[in-house]
């Protein structure tokens, strides 16, 4: 397999000058273990059949490359983590996305088909995935690693060509384009630090003061993780945040009794206790409401089943994976919007995914909106 490796700024400049307006295939190799942000180890690109690999460790300033993606059509597979890397380096996602995994879903080849399986299905070619767990930030990269990385972009264009044919035959290509844009928009949606606590398990078991405490602790943990570039659980584990919010310790000895990790106590103990104390002094009227689980609403299981039945019928009719139309999370988002918000709040809130775009056209119109 022929490829061009870029290891200098001059080589990068020459490559950027050669780019045209045809679609460009993009993939990234990265390492993320203890860090908040993924560490980029290699960039793989293909345009007009020409494969280019950029070494971001040898060429640390890639700002001109990120700008060069503006208004391009970019082909990726299972793009979620790649988009996060691009967004974090570029600052935006100002390009048109064609995610071949999403296309495979609309073609009913599987809800989350892997790259190797897609290539085997559409091109009858076997792709070696043996280097998927390698350390991409170590140098030098082996020839086997480089060949593996190059293979991740070489098949994207022919696969997308085949998928485009299939989706046009089904009348689904516009829905596919729309879902790709939804994916981009979701990745650009800013995280609300005051809402990150909602992703922690068992928040519904806390009283209002506990909810206020875990809200402030989760906000602080996010800021600390971003500032120190640490994975969230390497600041304080999620289950320990819940313990802190439930028991609301007042001393370092209290923290030890909760069996927090020694490093959590040594590095963050005083700050954690200060946050808990501040919440203790808040006016209870300012505490967030108790979190109510959807499962505790009367008729939840019955409603969930009836909605799934409608969605399953739609999936069978249009030959689509059920998960593509509406996973349990998408259904729960709709039910939270419908049951937990007042009429006035619903008018101001973003409409749930099930009531927007192609999902609304296919099936969402059958539900309360």
Q: Gist?
A:
The chain has 369 residues and is α/β, with parallel strands linked by helices. 52% of the residues lie in helices and 9% in strands.
CATH topology of the largest domain: Nucleotidyltransferase, domain 5
Work out the count of structural domains: 3
Q: Would you identify the regions where 5 or more consecutive residues have pLDDT less than 50?
A: none
Can you identify the CATH superfamily of the largest domain? Ribonuclease H-like superfamily/Ribonuclease H
Radius of gyration: 24 Å
Query: What is the molecular shape?
Result: globular
Distance between the termini: 53 Å
CATH class of the largest domain: Alpha Beta
Order of helices and strands: EHEEEHEHEHHHHHHHHHHHHHH
Query: Main beta sheet, described?
Result: 6 strands, mixed
Strand content: 5-15%
Main sheet strand line-up: 1-4-3-2-5-6
Number of strands: 6
- Which percent range fits the helix content? 40-55%
Q: What number is the mean pLDDT?
A: 96
Supply the CATH architecture of the largest domain.
2-Layer Sandwich
Overview of the structural elements:
The protein has helices at residues 9-18, 63-68, 80-90, 100-106, 115-123, 143-154, 156-170, 173-188, 208-228, 238-247, 252-257, 262-281, 300-318, 322-325, 328-340, 343-348, 357-362, and strands at 4-6, 24-31, 39-47, 50-54, 73-76, 96-99. It is α/β, with parallel strands linked by helices and 369 residues long. The protein has 3 domains: 4-188, Ribonuclease H-like superfamily/Ribonuclease H (Nucleotidyltransferase, domain 5); 196-286, HRDC domain (DNA polymerase, domain 1, Orthogonal Bundle), CATH 1.10.150; 294-366, DNA polymerase, domain 1 (Orthogonal Bundle). It has a 6-stranded mixed sheet, with helices on both faces. Helix 4 packs parallel to helix 7 (156-170) and helix 5 crosses helix 7. It is globular, with a radius of gyration of 24 Å. The N and C termini lie far apart (53 Å). The model has no long low-confidence stretch (mean pLDDT 96).
């Amino acid at each position: 397999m022929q490829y061009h490796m870029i290891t200098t700024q001059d080589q990068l400049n020459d490559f950027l000058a050669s780019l045209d307006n045809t679609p460009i295939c993009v993939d990234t190799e990265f390492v993320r273990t203890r860090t908040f942000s993924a560490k980029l180890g290699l960039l793989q690109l293909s345009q007009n059949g020409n494969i280019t690999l950029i070494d971001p460790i040898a060429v640390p300033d890639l700002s001109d490359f990120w700008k060069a993606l503006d208004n391009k059509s970019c082909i990726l597979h299972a793009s979620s983590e790649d988009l996060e890397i691009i967004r974090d380096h570029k600052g935006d996602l100002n390009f048109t996305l064609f995610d071949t995994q999403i296309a495979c879903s609309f073609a009913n080849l599987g809800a989350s088909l892997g790259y190797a399986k897609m290539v085997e299905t559409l091109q009858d070619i076997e792709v070696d995935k043996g280097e998927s767990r390698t350390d991409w930030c170590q140098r030098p990269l082996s020839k086997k690693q480089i060949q593996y990385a190059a293979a991740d972009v070489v098949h994207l264009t022919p696969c997308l060509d085949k998928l485009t044919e299939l989706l046009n035959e089904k009348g689904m290509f516009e829905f596919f384009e729309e879902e790709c844009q939804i994916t981009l928009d979701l990745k650009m949606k800013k995280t609300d630090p005051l809402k990150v606590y909602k992703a922690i398990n068992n928040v519904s078991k806390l009283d209002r003061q506990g909810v206020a405490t875990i809200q402030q602790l989760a906000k602080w943990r996010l800021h600390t993780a971003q500032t120190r570039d640490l994975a969230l659980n390497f600041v304080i584990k999620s289950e320990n945040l819940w313990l802190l919010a439930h028991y609301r310790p007042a001393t370092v000895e209290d923290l030890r009794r909760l069996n927090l990790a020694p490093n959590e106590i040594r590095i963050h103990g005083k700050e954690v206790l200060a946050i808990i104390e501040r919440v203790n002094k808040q006016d209870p009227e300012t505490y967030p409401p108790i979190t109510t689980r959807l499962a505790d609403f009367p008729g939840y299981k019955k409603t969930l089943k009836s909605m799934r039945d409608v969605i399953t019928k739609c999936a069978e009719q249009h030959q689509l994976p059920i998960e593509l139309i509406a996973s349990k999370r998408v259904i729960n988002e709709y039910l939270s919007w419908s049951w937990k918000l007042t009429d006035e709040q619903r008018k101001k809130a973003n409409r749930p995914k099930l009531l927007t775009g192609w999902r609304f056209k296919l099936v969402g119109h059958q539900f309360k909106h």
